[in-house]
Amino acid sequence: MLTVTRTVEFCAAHRLFNPEWPDEKNLEVYGRCSNPGGHGHNYTLKVSVTGNYDKESGMVINVTKLRDILQKEVVKKFDHKNLNDIDDFKNTVTTMEVIALTISGNLRKPFSEAGIKLVKLELSESDKNTVTLEPK
Question: In angstroms, rounded to a whole number, what is the distance separating the alpha carbons of residues 39 and 13?
Fold first, then answer.
């Protein structure tokens, strides 16, 4: 199996909080990340895909097409935005895990249309914190 990986970056702000909980519990669970003013990250997203290898073109997918999909479905939606204000996250907590799952869901249709499948998604909010998603 051949796997193609593309990396994109975006900057976004968010606040970790569960609106069902009182402020005290949000502070206990999320610490300073529950600050009402929010905070930001410079996210790095690595997306690995696979598909049929086309002997004629020599590619699984043209990396320009992969770049365009990631720009449309991730960077344009999230870059320099407050994630809590985006419809994708209206009813959830914007943890790295939830962001990764949401991105994966948003990529499902365009990847299917491009004839590729998500193999691995890695989302880093810092050089110390990364979540990895490997769909079954």
Answer: 5
Decide if 11 is catalytic. Answer: no
Q: Does domain 3-133 correspond to CATH entry 3.30.479.10?
A: yes
Confirm whether pTM is higher than 0.90.
yes
Catalytic residue among 14, 41, 73, 125: 125
Candidate list 33, 56, 97, 113, residue with the active-site label: 33
CB 50 within 8 A of CB 4: yes
Whether the Cβ atoms of residue 83 and residue 94 lie closer than 8 Å to each other:
yes
Residue 81 CA to residue 98 CA, distance in Å, equals: 16
- In whole angstroms, give the CA distance from residue 109 to residue 120: 16
Active site residue 125: yes
Tens digit of pLDDT for each residue in 26-70?
Answer: 999 999 999 999 999 999 999 999 999 999 999 999 999 999 999
Q: Which of 28, 80, 97, 134 is catalytic?
A: 80
